[in-house]
Specification:
- Helices cover 78% and strands 0% of the residues.
- The protein is an all-alpha fold and 119 residues long.
- Helix 1 (6-18) packs across helix 2.
- The protein is globular and about 45 Å long.
Length: 119
């Protein structure tokens, strides 16, 4: 099996985010791919792809992005928290943007629930 190049990994990250669904299978599959490839020296770029896609996603997709972010942060090993450390300074903005763009009560309650998990 041929290893993907860094540009191929980043392209695949973008593609996976483009079809991300709020299902456990989709979240876990995408999270596993991000975590597997974050130790290849491109954590910052992977985080950048996530942030770019999050910014342009519609309000319905933002919750899926937060589920993915939560899964990544919860799954990353404590001694290798590359992605968590890159996302951490931006979490306030990420959650504020999602909260203000998701109009329904369910979505907003889910955002609060994710934040409570991290307390």
């Amino acid at each position: 099996v041929r290893m993907l190049t860094k540009p191929e990994i980043l392209k695949q990250c973008g593609e996976m985010l483009g079809c991300l669904e709020p299902t456990q299978d989709s979240i876990v599959k995408t999270s596993d791919f991000f975590l597997l490839n974050s130790n290849r020296g491109i954590s910052k770029e992977i985080c950048g792809v996530w942030l770019e896609r999050f910014k342009i996603s519609d309000s319905g997709q933002k919750l899926s992005f937060l589920y993915l972010l939560n899964h990544i942060i919860q799954s990353e090993r404590k001694d290798e928290s590359r992605l968590k450390n890159l996302f951490q300074p931006q979490l306030g903005q990420i959650f504020f943007k999602a909260y203000t763009m998701i109009p329904d009560r369910f979505g907003r309650n889910e955002i609060v629930r994710i934040l409570q998990i991290w307390e």
